[in-house]
Amino acid sequence: MVFDLDGVLVDSETVWDEVRRAFAARHGGTWLPTSTRDMQGMSTPEWASYLVEAVGVRLNPDEAARGVVAEMAARYEAGPPVLPGAVEVVLEVASRYPVAIASSSPPVLIRSFLEATDLADVVPVALSSEEAGAGKPAPDVYLLAASKLGVHPSRSAAVEDSTNGLRAALAAGMTVYAVPNPHFPPDPGVLAEVTVLQALSDLPSALASTRPDE
Questions:
Q1: Fewest CB atoms less than 10 Å from the CB: which of 65, 105, 130, 150?
Q2: Contacts of 19 (CB under 8 A, 6+ apart)
Q3: What is the pLDDT of residues 70-104, one digit of tens each?
Q4: Cis peptide bond upstream of 137, omega within 30
């Protein structure tokens, strides 16, 4: 079972949006109507390049990436905004299946989540898309997660909240569950291709009924 992080386990999509918008404004960028959704699921190198090339931030991509990630890390100093019940769901699922995290967040923020929740020993595979190649909606990070868990993607499941994340898991050939992000609802056409849950807490029973062999 592979979990997305932002929007599934951590209520951070709005934080990312706030930080990147403010950073862009301070550095000469102009936020586009599509920028928020465009960057959802992008790896760090991808969204940093987007900020420079599409938004017009007057820095190079490495500088943009370092600046935004440093601000996100500062926001996480008091602990990441873990969603209610998320830890309990991961523990319950991990008692029955091997679990992984496949996230577009940089490794430093994934580690922050695992340390704050004491899940480091429960989640043996925790990957950033920047370690896998292309970010979501490309399937790279999900394919790598399945490989590191030692299972075929078609015998794995993923849970996501965003359009690009759902597309990535579908492209990997996984069974896909959606917990739609209330702030940035996924594309209805993509939701029609997956199993939609009302809440993350519904995941254990949904897995029990389908019994994926992760």
A1: 150
A2: 68, 71, 72, 75
A3: 999 998 888 899 999 999 999 999 999 999 999 99
A4: yes
CATH of domain 13-75: 1.10.150
**Chain region(s) in the chain for CATH 1.10.150:** 13-75
Q: 2-11+81-210 — its CATH code?
A: 3.40.50.1000
pLDDT in tens, 8-47: 999 999 999 999 999 999 999 999 999 999 999 999 999 9
Count of C-beta atoms within a 10 Å radius of residue 152: 13
Structure tokens at 214: 């992760």
- Helix, strand, coil abundance in the chain, percent, nearest 5: 50, 10, 40
Strands (E), 97-150: 100-103, 125-128
Identify the CA nearest to 65 among candidates 24, 101, 32: 24
pTM (2 d.p.): 0.89
Q: What is the mean pLDDT of residues 194-208?
A: 96
Which residues in the chain are classed under CATH 3.40.50.1000? 2-11+81-210
